[in-house]
């Protein structure tokens, strides 16, 4: 939203432009030699007024937003230009891109009218009675100014997502559990992309895939039956969007983010462990090759720290595990070996947190940390049971370890929390069911659409 003038009285708060007025812009002339540049600062206002008039006349509108029992005629291009929510909806291959009428949920008609007025005019009437609803809706549709962004943290939470995985009877689950540990709440999140027929046939579509977050969007890739597939979850519109396929299909691999790009590393192609590394450019929606791993591995751990990518442990074959730490430098497009893990391990996961990389899983019964700055390893804490193929995510300055399988190959439902400040390991909650081989990532979500945890479903 635009800047607001805050008053202590009961008078309405009115959004203003940066100079506190609505006067037309000026024609600025800048001369340089034989060139003259004219900057008509009033043109933007003329365009805005013209778009508002077109909306009022219902001219050239191409979409109708349905909120409660009201309908709002709008221009797709205006909505997409002003809101990342609508940009994601209209600029990706979603059904809403072609629909004439779109049902909008999570906001009432009065607040929607105010946001549309603001989008087309830069003005909105704010009162103490409606300010919270307007800010919450602005957060939902991502219509936020730089000045307003800090305030939006009041309406957002850092949450961790538990994506898919396998249950005790080796059944695939498409559910995505999104938990807010601070508010003890659960968010409604779109399931993994899968058809009803696939669910009924117990299809293991999303098994042993990989996932990562970039700019608050979740990327998933590969899997036993989806070796080349890559999808992106847009939290603004709560939808999964398919993007460009991998060049080399794989599962039991890992993903990482480095330099604004997504990396897909190693894994298994159904025949052998592979050393292939691919990088994804979100702007151009394309994959390219990077230097291959020094050691072919699957079921390893991977994380990035500063400007380098680390691949830790893994299985060079079906029986053995390795302790090697492989480090990739994108500046030179080369891999090198660093200090090995204290133990050989596979079916593990890692996350970068503060100045360390934390590794958990496999048969280790422990949480280890690696310091990229000092190239040293340290035992952080020990567990009572193994947690093979568990997940790990940083959230609210703590580490959350989810699910996994114990030494009896039974799935685990508990969520552990490691607090680096107190150096304590505690049981945070119990999931509705045990799960392993799942994805675990962190992102920010608006808490205005959080559904409270159902008693008995997740105990805390």
From TrEMBL:
UniProt KW keywords: Kelch repeat, Repeat
UniProt organism field: Chelonia mydas (Green sea-turtle)
Lineage: Eukaryota, Metazoa, Chordata, Craniata, Vertebrata
SMART domains: BTB, Kelch
PROSITE patterns documented for this protein: BTB
Matches recorded under InterPro entries: BTB/POZ_dom (IPR000210), Kelch-BTB_domain-containing (IPR052392), Kelch-typ_b-propeller (IPR015915), Kelch_1 (IPR006652), Kelch_2 (IPR011498), SKP1/BTB/POZ_sf (IPR011333)
Pfam families named among the record's database cross-references: BTB, Kelch_2, Kelch_KLHDC2_KLHL20_DRC7
Record keyword Ribonucleoprotein present: no
Domain BTB: residue ranges: 61-128
Entry protein name: Kelch-like protein 6
Gene3D superfamilies in alphabetical order: Kelch-type beta propeller, Potassium Channel Kv1.1, Chain A
